[in-house]
TrEMBL record:
SUPFAM superfamilies: Immunoglobulin, L domain-like. Keywords: Disulfide bond, Leucine-rich repeat, Membrane, Repeat, Signal, Transmembrane, Transmembrane helix. SMART domains: IG (SM00409), LRR_BAC (SM00364), LRR_TYP (SM00369), LRRNT (SM00013). InterPro entries: Ig-like_dom, Ig-like_dom_sf, Ig-like_fold, Ig_sub, Leu-rich_rpt, Leu-rich_rpt_typical-subtyp, LRR_dom_sf, LRR_TM_domain-containing. This is Ig-like domain-containing protein. Residues 1-36 form the signal peptide. The chain crosses the membrane at residues 398-418. Residues 271-374 form the Ig-like domain. One of its GO terms (cellular component) is plasma membrane. Pfam families: LRR_1, LRR_8. PANTHER family: ANTIGEN BSP, PUTATIVE-RELATED, INSULIN LIKE GROWTH FACTOR BINDING PROTEIN ACID LABILE SUBUNIT. The keyword Manganese does not apply. It comes from Myripristis murdjan (pinecone soldierfish).
Length: 514
């Protein structure tokens, strides 16, 4: 066979270069051109590329696509266009764009980085977060935006960041708390860390923050904001002090209301705080109520004679209630003295309840603001904050109750039928007496055969008594319930009783039953 030959163009010696020669040689040998090489103004170490501090005003278009970490910090970049690189980064996990002058990010600018986990845009000039600014970053976990000029977060700006866990917005110009980060159906589902320190926040949604801080592991940082110290804010900070909330423990000096690392000094004159606070040790209470009944829970640490408009929040298993937003026809009602009234208790009302109020005091180790409520046979969660019922807990409780009943019945039968009992046959004459022997009197427990003969009963004879379970009940109207005994001290009465401790009416004499 014949072979085809394509002559290469002859270039003058002065125009030849090693790179061009290598490219022509690879084409002649049938090899495709290799991936983009490391730019001459960057440092490349395997899959790490650093172009930091190179006074770049525009992004290079020939960055290698194999990079897993790209550092473009400390440059003069002003815009991040949609086509800022010639090829996508299929492996890029960390992108650092801090300490630039970026004020605009075009839509789909991050379509080239679909697997990005860490994005650093700190110390730039961003003012508004638009709805499409972070499109395509569904796997992003950490977003750094501190040190910008952000004053507005439009709805939907964070909606596609489903995997976001940590968000840093410190040192911006925000005046409103961004509740849309938590409320919307889209957006972050696992956001456990939010830094809003050193912004321009004046007011806080205390009722929503109580629910968020009870659920989150990392916390919400709010130090360094010009917050207006009122009774609602003081109540939340007081609760955070008791809970040893990490943002408050680490940065207590950055909060208002005279807050320090080990206590709260109240500036506003809040009813129920300081001189009106109860000096008694705060202990966790446990209450038991039947479904449909009414129950009142007193706020621990508040004096019963407190007068004035109280700022009281109750963190219940299903929601956070505020005294200023009472619904008199609702299921829950906060009374003027801070007591929570549960009207017509439901099984799902079981759980841990927390009373958040401006007590203005230091808490001792072991003190608790929790009140546990058990409705019917429901179990009570032991964790603080919002207590959520679990179907597995109800199943375990029912299974344990059933097993206890079966064991109790077996023990009763063994006790009744295996207890030695000598019975006289033929008493009363004829076969009737034999028929009314031990088999006819099996339910009677004889302690001594002589007692049967003489018809006498001694006080030390064995008895069987079935007791109704004792429950804490109340009238139809709401009133303070008696606290249930602790499990360590209030064991349930057994179904077998000794004759010397007879409860109720004893069994009829054996002679009368024969």
């Amino acid at each position: 066979g014949s072979s085809l030959f394509f002559p290469l163009p002859c270039l003058p010696c002065s125009r030849r270069s090693p790179a061009a020669a290598a490219l022509l040689l690879s084409l002649c040998l049938g090899f495709p051109p290799s991936s983009a090489a490391c730019p001459p103004f960057c440092l490349c170490a395997s899959d790490i590329i650093s172009c930091s501090g190179r006074n770049l005003s525009t992004l290079p278009l020939d960055l290698p696509g194999y990079a897993t970490r790209l550092d473009l910090s400390h440059n003069g970049l002003t815009t991040l266009p949609a086509d800022w690189n010639a090829q996508p980064f299929s492996r890029l996990a960390t992108l650092i764009l801090s300490w630039n002058s970026i004020s605009q990010i075009e839509p789909d600018a991050f379509a080239l980085t679909p697997h990005l986990l860490h994005l650093d845009l700190s110390s730039n000039r961003l003012e508004i977060l638009n709805a499409s600014i972070f499109r395509g970053l569904e796997e992003l976990q950490v977003l750094l935006l501190f040190g910008n000029q952000i004053a507005q977060i439009n709805p939907g700006a964070i909606s596609e960041l489903h995997s976001l866990q940590r968000l840093y917005l410190s040192g911006n110009r925000l005046t409103d708390f961004p509740l849309e980060l938590y409320r919307g159906p889209a957006g972050p589902r696992n956001l456990t860390f939010l830094d809003l320190s050193s912004n321009r926040l004046l007011q806080l949604p205390v009722q929503s923050l109580l629910a968020l801080s009870a659920q989150q592991q990392g916390g919400i940082y709010l130090q360094g904001n010009p917050l207006v110290c009122n009774c609602a804010l003081l109540a939340m900070l007081d609760y955070w002090v008791w809970k040893q909330y990490r943002p408050l423990v680490d940065f207590g000096a950055g909060y208002p209301c005279g807050l320090s690392g080990d206590g709260v000094g109240s500036q506003p004159d809040c009813p129920g705080s300081q001189q009106e606070v109860s000096s008694t040790f705060l202990e966790a209470g446990t209450y038991r109520v039947e479904p449909g009944e009414c129950l009142r829970l007193e706020c621990p640490g508040l004096a019963p004679s407190t007068q004035g408009k109280l700022e009281v929040f109750w963190v219940t298993p299903r929601a956070v209630l505020h005294s200023s937003a009472n619904d008199t026809s609702g299921h829950f009602l906060i009374l003027p003295n801070g007591t929570l009234e549960i009207r017509g208790a439901l099984l799902e009302d079981s759980g841990v309840y927390l009373c958040v109020a401006a007590r203005g005091r230091r808490y001792h180790p072991g003190e608790s603001l929790e009140v546990s409520v058990s409705v019917g046979n429901s179990t009570v969660a032991s964790a603080g904050g919002l207590a959520h019922g679990s179907g597995a807990e109800h199943f375990n409780t029912a299974f344990t109750t059933l097993a206890s009943c079966v064991v109790s019945i077996v023990l009763v039968l063994l006790y009744l039928y295996l207890t030695p009992c000598r019975c006289r046959e033929g008493r009363g004459g004829g076969g009737g007496g034999a028929a009314r022997g031990c088999g006819g009197r099996a339910i009677l427990l004889c302690s001594d055969p002589r007692e049967v003969d003489s018809g006498e009963r001694r006080s030390n004879g064995k008895r069987v008594a079935f007791l109704e379970p004792q429950a804490v009940r109340d009238s139809d109207e709401c009133g303070p319930k008696t606290q249930a005994m602790n499990s360590a001290h209030g064991a349930t009465e057994g179904i077998l009783k000794n004759g010397s401790r007879t409860v109720g009416q004893t069994l009829t004499d054996a002679a009368h039953m024969a």
